Amino acid sequence: MARDSKTVADWSRPLPRPLTIPKVMTLSTLTDVRALMRHLPKDHGDRPAWRHVAAEIERAAAGVDVIDVFVALRLALSIERVEYRMTGQA
Fold first, then answer.
1. What are phi and psi of 14, to 5 degrees?
2. Given its phi and psi angles, is residue 49 left (phi above 0), alpha (psi -120 to 50 degrees) or beta?
3. 41 or 28, greater pLDDT
4. What is the full DSSP assignment across the chain?
5. Based on C-alpha coordinates, what's the Rg of the chain?
6. Which of 64, 66, 73, 86 has a CA positioned 20 to 30 A from the CA of residue 26?
7. What is the pTM of this model?
8. Which residue from 9, 5, 29, 7 is spatially nearest to 19, judged by alpha carbons?
9. What is the pLDDT of residue 70?
10. Burial class for 11, CB neighbours closer than 10 Å (0-12, 13-18, 19+)
């Protein structure tokens, strides 16, 4: 359910399952995904898959289901051939 446009974004929302990028970081909240996005090289951040992740984290912070950012993130990591593993419970 989308929130009222006056509602402050909630970056603490958890992902459905944490994703661990070995030797880099574990992504468990929207804040973590946003931090990862800020550290991408510019040429990566401008790629369509990462632009989609950026759009989805904004939507999720505004109240849309976080599953959409989770799927977009996994797709972007796979496209970039970044090794990751899902941790935690399903």
1. -80, 150
2. alpha
3. 28
4. -PPPTTSPP-TTPEEEEEEEETTTEEEEEHHHHHHHHHTS-HHHHTSHHHHHHHHHHHHHHTTS-THHHHHHHHHHHHHTT---EE-S--
5. 13
6. 64
7. 0.84
8. 29
9. 96
10. middle
